[in-house]
Amino acid sequence: MNQDKVILTGDRPTGPLHLGHYIGSLANRVILQDTYKQFILLADMQALTDNYDNPLKVRANILEVALDYLAVGIDPKKSTICIQSMIPQIAELAIIYLNLVTISRLKRNPTVKTEIKQKGYGENVPAGFLIYPVHQAADITVVKGTLVPAGEDQLPILEQANEIVRSFNRIYNCSVLPEIEAMMSPVSRLPGLDGKAKMSKSLGNALFLSDPEDLVVKKVMSMYTDPDHIHATDPGKIKGNVVFTYLDAFDSDKNLVSQMKEHYQRGGLGDVIVKKRLIEVLNNLLEPIRARRSEYAKDPSTVMKILFEGTEKTCKIAEDTMKEVRAAMYLDYHT
Amino acid sequence: MNQDKVILTGDRPTGPLHLGHYIGSLANRVILQDTYKQFILLADMQALTDNYDNPLKVRANILEVALDYLAVGIDPKKSTICIQSMIPQIAELAIIYLNLVTISRLKRNPTVKTEIKQKGYGENVPAGFLIYPVHQAADITVVKGTLVPAGEDQLPILEQANEIVRSFNRIYNCSVLPEIEAMMSPVSRLPGLDGKAKMSKSLGNALFLSDPEDLVVKKVMSMYTDPDHIHATDPGKIKGNVVFTYLDAFDSDKNLVSQMKEHYQRGGLGDVIVKKRLIEVLNNLLEPIRARRSEYAKDPSTVMKILFEGTEKTCKIAEDTMKEVRAAMYLDYHT
């Protein structure tokens, strides 16, 4: 166990997790939990920043996402799963950090800038949304997280978090907060079933970890391939052919994939055969995940108990950090 | 006791309190505590929004301001004095409220707008400063405050707080948060010793409640009167003559003040005689305040104990409010 590094990662509970989450982060977390101290945050408060008018969606997805975690093999004995809204220290720390960052700096964050444009907020951006990178800085630092698995678009958030860390340590003349290192995701983003750059629930192009066998068949059969590959005998293209992208990502028989690619490009290999292989691969991957999921789903109170225990453990660590933060800021009135 | 209305008031602990505070709020609090449930908040977190780089100043003034409170007759058996940073529920609630208000709305707040200009922040306004009205909405509503003693410049803050209250109740389909009523200060603002509109520590024109007798003499003797009233025999002006403004505010012998004004305007009454009357009046007012202050100052740990007890009591009430808030937002995972 590498005790020096502490991982903080997590998800906004806005929907069940899909293959993109699996390949982009979940599979990695299952490996990392053997080496690092790992906190996995169910970020319900951050889910509310752009879903504040739909709290039931957030509420329902706490359990769904937790089931996905346990189903893929995140082990609560190794990883600490916790609920953000039940850790008041995060809010306390976020409020403190808000003094250390200007509104113009927040507006310059390229990731947030893009999201504000995508959501069409314009000048009417909710304050909670603009400041979410500050809140994330609090998420990470409240457990003294030093390692955050990240994609390209999370880098500006981590940069901003490190600016806050350095400001805090400089202004309060201390070394309470450790700097954060990004652990770049080894896998590039999984495209959606329709070939679009991103798999996402809201785009309707996702294959969920909880999808039953027959739905996987249906979804794979509808997947985007090569639109010019009309007959099996035609030569087909691999580039942009999502079925092959998925086979590259999930099929462990690399030789077979390589042969199929060659055959497909040469002509004579029909989409249906390739898709059947992908269905087999995905159902093999998802079968044990589904089995564990349905086992846990029988007893939601046990799942919630796991979350409560993880949250309690996190709160204790968070309170230790806050004691140091308050001491550095001379807010430790009891001493 | 009027149990229906709950007062929330308080001060940013950035300096000892002065005569302006006394006449503008403290004297009133001593009266109100007999009729209302009254919370008095030592707003250290808000003091840090524009003093984040000087936490020792905030720390030191917690005790100073508490001593001023007790000295003027705020009775901890009647009023609940509490420390903002020790009430995590305020931060939790503020973070929730940030989703219900836009950045552009925050920028339109005329009071904050003026303050940003005065402080020369421009676009580099710290996020914590821009959002302080949201934080104040949390201060008030976390104890379900319904009545807030206010001057003109606090009205936009209360208006914004009520917008948040209404948004919350509407979006979460509940009536958890009561609307807030402003209790307009009956006294207009006390000018500074130099005649400037506002008495303030930073302007160096304040007479503090903790000033000793001889300093009161010195400060009153240096007060601004009528610059054209050179000789005692000259007729003098009352308007803009701060010594008479103070006599109007503090001298209970209204007849005497009236006679002195007449004599002064007619000519033949020297500034020194008027000032000596004011010194007498102020020292009569301040003498018992000083005595109580020095008594409490002998034992700071007892004063801190009063604050801790008040804070603990406030935390319990705040947690009750948060339980309702979380239930309305479906964040009550334990149920």
TL;DR of this structure?
The structure is a homodimer of 335-residue chains. With 335 residues, chain A is mainly alpha-helical.
Question: Overview of this structure, please?
Answer:
The structure is a homodimer of 335-residue chains. In chain A, the strands form two sheets. In chain A, strands 1-2-3 form a three-stranded parallel β-sheet. Chain A has a two-stranded parallel sheet with strand order 4-5. Chain A folds into two domains: 2-190 and 299-328, HUPs (Rossmann fold), CATH 3.40.50.620; 213-294, Tyrosyl-Transfer RNA Synthetase (Orthogonal Bundle). Chain A has 335 residues and is mainly alpha-helical. In chain A, β4 (147-150), α9 and β5 form a beta-alpha-beta unit. Chain A has 14 helices and five strands. The model of chain A has no long low-confidence stretch (mean pLDDT 95). At the A-B interface, α2, α3, α4, α5 and α7 of A face α2, α3, α4, α5 and α7 of B.
Tell me the number of helical segments of chain A per DSSP (H or I, 4 or more residues long): 14
CATH classification, class level of the largest domain in chain A = Alpha Beta
Largest interface, per-chain counts? A-B, 51 and 51 residues
Q: What is the CATH topology of the largest domain in chain A? A: Rossmann fold
Rg of chain A over CA atoms, rounded to whole Å, is: 22 Å
Given helix and strand content, the structural type of chain A is mainly alpha
Helix content of chain A: 40-55%
Tell me about the largest β-sheet of chain A.
Answer: 3 strands, parallel
Number of domains of chain A: 2
Largest beta sheet: strand ordering of chain A: 1-2-3
